[in-house]
Fold this protein.
Amino acid sequence: MSKNVRVVVDAMGGDNAPGEIVKGALQALETQKNLTIVFVGRKKPLEAELKKYAYEAGRVETVFAEEVIEMSEPPVAAIKHKKDSSIVVGLKMLKNGEADAFVSAGSTGAVLAGGQLIVGRLGGVSRPPLAPLIPTSTGVSLLIDCGANVDARASWLVQYAKMGSIYMKHVVGIEKPRVAIVNIGAEDEKGNALVKETIPLLRACPELNFTGSIEARDIPYGRADVIVCEAFVGNVILKLFEGTCSMLMREVKKTLLGSFRSKLGAVLIKPALKKTLTNFDASQYGGAPMLGLKGLVVKTHGSSKAVEVKHSVIQCVNFSRQNINEKISRQLSAGTSAE
Amino acid sequence: MSKNVRVVVDAMGGDNAPGEIVKGALQALETQKNLTIVFVGRKKPLEAELKKYAYEAGRVETVFAEEVIEMSEPPVAAIKHKKDSSIVVGLKMLKNGEADAFVSAGSTGAVLAGGQLIVGRLGGVSRPPLAPLIPTSTGVSLLIDCGANVDARASWLVQYAKMGSIYMKHVVGIEKPRVAIVNIGAEDEKGNALVKETIPLLRACPELNFTGSIEARDIPYGRADVIVCEAFVGNVILKLFEGTCSMLMREVKKTLLGSFRSKLGAVLIKPALKKTLTNFDASQYGGAPMLGLKGLVVKTHGSSKAVEVKHSVIQCVNFSRQNINEKISRQLSAGTSAE
């Protein structure tokens, strides 16, 4: 029998809390055996929300936390002062071994700061990166780091490559994940100082299937499984990809409704178009795990609906059952000691 | 009467040289009075190509250069050793005042290196950036720098903002161009070290309409006219935008041809869809000017067809007639001295 997994869910985080959060987590519960959900949040709205659903009472717990960290608050200060917020209370449970994973759609900065300050890093990990799966025309790629550690060092990027490979192999099921580093040209001599320093270090790792540089135009085509980059660049990639997809689809829709002829055409192509759009909808791939912590922290999009929360919780179950953290610890401590 | 403008065109640069290059430049000639085109390239293919067209002989000149710089050559070495290449010969004409502008679809690295080494910087300019216009849902934005100077300093970025504003005002015709810096959050305290250092410097420039940070997801919606960023980030933005648009459109087309029902719909929506696609086709906006040199160097896409070359040449005419370089010199020398 697979081990029981306890996932703490921040009921107060994101634009659609607590409604979509509670709904999505309970949907995940239905699909998974040996899963317990622990909701953390303000008593009144959380209890009111839970009343709307029928679920196995023994598999759902509640922990109350009356403070809420707002999106605009400076993250480190918020983590230090709002001890009774859902993020701080939830992350402390993870730290104390009372849960295996924590999912939040709340302030990215607060979740990242809390992950480092409260949960803490695995031994040998320099900096835990945030690593979402992004949809491509051939599947999904892991973008690592997309916002946790700006102004990164080359040695951190090498660790990202290793952690990302383990994740793609054991959680997503890709046997020899192709690792590439984001660069402004295909040749090794291209790049900024950080990339030029990192490439030979990646080439020197026999455990990686390192394929060299990837130019940004090739990312949407899925030409690498693990896409390594510094956090600022990764954040730009993630948000530009999202913005370009949404803008373009809006423009196409506007165009289709512009004339009778195209309106008629739009009715005919709607089912097929919807299928394509769904392929590039990040929500079905769950949230972004923060790798290299002493517990799993998953950040889902601030605008997450139930489906994204559901997939994020399922992701936690897979991550935990695959013992990803043990695998990361083993591989990173086998390498040269990190600074 | 407007002054005569002489534009040197690299007939050997890009995937479609010399055919599309010659064709596009001659098309530009037809639309502009007081324009002379000087083609630089290998004698045989260039003369063979020119024979295909009828044009006013007095307005077209040829200069022969028998070497060609390949895309894969290390740029600085190529510029130093291939003295008889179209890029070196063309840029030398610009340097010597024999022309006002130089257009090439050849090696970006060689054009950038040649611009700096042969043409030279305007007084007061620290680093000349490459600044393409990118299509957005509301018009065009200038992305500056998209690949000329990696690992930039804050003071360079401030100069980009000033040069970009002058360009958008006088070439594109936007009265008070909104300037924003690419960042990973909307607040001033977000960002990496470079962005945090640059923001207060931009706020301190009364001549700029600085609106603060722009997140990458807002770029496709045209939320700024001048988008300031470090070259590595700018290059990633340019290429990812291009890659995402092309991938998504390919997927939509594939979807439309997937069933009889959607095939029928596709026929009906084709004209409207094509209109939308054209809006996001960078070729109609010409090439990327390298700002801050003692002459105008325009780099067009390596895959440029005639239409892009045509628009690039027209862009050179506008740039030259608006005396952009004098305006840049005046504004940059009025500021604090650059390092």
Q: What stands out?
A: Chain B touches chain A through 66 residues (CB under 8 Å). Chain B has eleven helices and eleven strands. The longest helix of chain B spans residues 231-256. The radius of gyration of chain B is 20 Å.
